[in-house]
Amino acid sequence: MRFTHEQFRELAAKHGLAVTHQRQVVYEAVIASHGHHSPENIYAAVRRRIPSISLATVYNNLRLFIACGLLREVTPHASTLRVEGNLKPHHHLVCSRCKSVQDIEGDFIDFNRLSRQLPGGFDLAQPLIEVFGLCRRCRAKN
Amino acid sequence: MRFTHEQFRELAAKHGLAVTHQRQVVYEAVIASHGHHSPENIYAAVRRRIPSISLATVYNNLRLFIACGLLREVTPHASTLRVEGNLKPHHHLVCSRCKSVQDIEGDFIDFNRLSRQLPGGFDLAQPLIEVFGLCRRCRAKN
DNA sequence: GGTCGTTTTATACTGATTCTCATTCGATAA
DNA sequence: TTATCGAATGAGAATCAGTATAAAACGACC
């Protein structure tokens, strides 16, 4: 799904963001490349369309998009920020060793039980679950 | 529970680690202070007993303890490493905003369903689950 | 006491991210 | 259109966590 300028304009308006060329290209770069991406990755992709863009601009806009919910921050177990554009409910499978992240779907959480265990005031409005284990590759390495 | 030299000696022997004074003090500092700690925190605590200790030594030993399972690495959503000494099965509640981590107990995961969803080869031997949401404080800030 | 492998220390270095500030852009009013 | 003003951008310096390196200290063993 290719984003038209119109679609981005609408999204931006909904979240009170000014529309700039850089902003749009950064956003499209994340959406176009499915998966979990580092700011550097996105910077590289965006530079193909705007060679003069600054890394700081990419960071600024990623933070902005995360803050207003246009993008999700993925666990930076890799010690560097990762973002994803997939806002549909899903969970993450994270390798404790190599820190790789895979999406996982499915209904394996008992939210009733979970909410009974929650400390007062904790808000699970958009729950994101991360399950840690060893990915196939790291397991093979023993 | 205060760790005696004897207890640490046994643990170290079990994991094939040499016993050094620094190593013992680092380990005790983590165990003594329950919760989730950054290397800097631990460094500060250890320096009260060994003023000349180097930060690198703290890092070295924390990595070592994590590698042999004496400590657990906590999600560095805070973008900096955290460790905990609590090895009993439990899960984490992480605030997406301020990155604080609380422990949570309870049996809200359906591991049968989960393992049906797992991609081949993913090893869930010591599953750790992290549930993201908004803590009371951040929620109050709206 | 001498030797060897391990650990510690001090410090330099790297890489990710943020900060600063001058410049440019974009929306709006004239 | 043109002028204006606040917001966004670009360039590069600064910061900060963590790692690498190399020399010194330690400790077990002969």
How much helix is in the residues of chain A?
Answer: 25-40%
**Name given to the CATH homologous superfamily of the largest domain in chain A:** Winged helix-like DNA-binding domain superfamily/Winged helix DNA-binding domain
Structural class of chain A: alpha+beta
How many angstroms does the end-to-end distance of chain A come to?
Answer: 40 Å
Assembly level:
homodimer
List the chains of the largest interface with their residue counts: A-B, 43 and 42 residues
Largest sheet of chain A: 3 strands, mixed
Contiguous low-pLDDT stretches of chain A (5 residues minimum) are none
Total discrete domains of chain A: 2
Q: What is the string of SSEs of chain A from the N terminus onward?
A: HHHHEEEEHEH
Mean pLDDT of chain A: 84
The first-level CATH class of the largest domain in chain A is given as: Mainly Alpha
Question: Secondary structure elements and their pairing?
Answer:
The structure is a homodimer of 142-residue chains.
Chain A: H1 5-14, H2 21-32, H3 39-47, H4 55-67, E1 72-74, E2 82-84, E3 91-95, E4 101-104, H5 111-117, E5 123-134, H6 136-140
Parallel strand pairs in A: 3-5
Antiparallel strand pairs in A: 1-2, 3-4
The structure holds a DNA duplex (30 and 30 nucleotides).
Q: What features would you describe in this structure?
A:
- 2 copies of one chain form a homodimer.
- By secondary structure, chain A is an alpha+beta fold.
- The first copy, chain A, has 2 domains: 5-83, Orthogonal Bundle (Arc Repressor Mutant, subunit A); 88-140, 2-Layer Sandwich (Dna Ligase, domain 1), CATH 3.30.1490.190.
- The first copy, chain A, has 6 helices and 5 strands; from the N terminus they run ααααββββαβα.
- Chain A has a 3-stranded mixed β-sheet with strand order 4-3-5.
- In chain A, helix 2 (21-32) packs across helix 3 (39-47) and helix 3 (39-47) crosses helix 4 (55-67).
- The longest helix of chain A has 13 residues, at 55-67.
- The mean pLDDT of chain A is 84.
- Chains A and B meet through helix 5, strand 5 and helix 6 of A and helix 5, strand 5 and helix 6 of B.
- Chain A binds a DNA duplex (30 and 30 nucleotides) through residues 18-23, 38-40, 52-57, 59-61, 79-81.
